[in-house]
Write a structure and sequence with these properties.
The chain is mainly β. Helix content is 3%, strand content 58%. The chain contains one helix and 13 strands, in the order ββββαβββββββββ. Strands 1, 2, 3, 4, 5, 6, 7, 8, 9, 10, 11, 12 and 13 form a 13-stranded antiparallel beta sheet that branches.
């Protein structure tokens, strides 16, 4: 995997592409650590507790319709579906899932632009925030079945999850898998997001069972969006 420039970052929330309003994205993931040392021990002992994501997104204030300010202020204290990727091509890595928008702030100084920032954390309804890979990279879906993406990952019986950000249009998005990379191969439906209208975002997981290494998205309709997956 080559190194990437930060300009390739994209940020999506609840079916909106808010990338242009932000220029800093900092996802973090940490777990509580508790000391369990007992009498007679010569060194401290610890156990790892619950993990919790902490995300900070910062950038420029924009109060236009359907831009960051309107979207954030209507969701403070609520669950949102957030995804961000470092690149839009198929296979690029990213993060995301359901998180809580806990804080939104605006700041201004006489020497610079008005800026804004969001803080998000875990514990939302679906309770998932994970590293993902892109299958559909926020372009208009062409509607032609392709040969799929070779994930290069060894299939296991643990299954996988999927994340959808439908940014424009409407239709049905289905993640399929196959044992071979050819449009004419046998492709099996794995995760179906159903018929949706933008803006829409959702987490679907987990498909239980062995999923072959070739994956693709089939979209019935006309739409623009992003879809990523996480294999377990």
């Amino acid at each position: 995997m080559p190194k990437l420039h930060g300009r390739h970052t994209r940020v999506y929330m609840d079916g909106y592409d808010i990338s242009g309003d932000f220029n800093s994205f900092e996802p973090g993931y940490a777990a509580d650590v508790a000391e369990v040392s007992g009498f007679g021990a010569s060194v401290k002992s610890y156990v790892v507790g619950l993990a919790d994501p902490a995300i900070r997104v910062a950038g420029l204030f924009n109060d236009a319709a359907n831009k960051a300010h309107a979207i954030a202020t209507s969701r403070i204290g609520s669950e949102v579906m957030l995804n961000a990727t470092w690149g839009t091509d198929v296979g690029k890595y990213g993060v995301g899932g359901t998180v809580s928008l806990s804080e939104y702030s605006i700041s201004s100084g006489i020497g610079g632009p008005v800026s804004s920032a969001m803080s998000l954390s875990g514990g939302a309804g679906a309770g998932v925030f994970e590293f993902v890979r892109t299958l559909w990279g926020n372009v208009q879906f062409q509607g032609t079945a392709d040969a799929g993406f070779d994930t290069g990952e060894t299939p296991t019986n643990a299954g996988f999850s999927a994340h959808l950000q439908l940014i424009g249009g409407s239709g049905t998005a289905i993640v399929q898998s196959s044992t071979a990379a050819a449009a004419a191969s046998v492709w099996t439906d794995r995760i179906d997001f159903g018929s949706r209208v933008a803006p829409y975002a959702d987490y679907r997981g987990t498909y239980a069972g062995t999923v072959p290494q070739f994956l693709r998205v089939i979209f019935t309709g006309v739409g623009t969006g992003w879809l990523g997956y996480k294999r377990f």
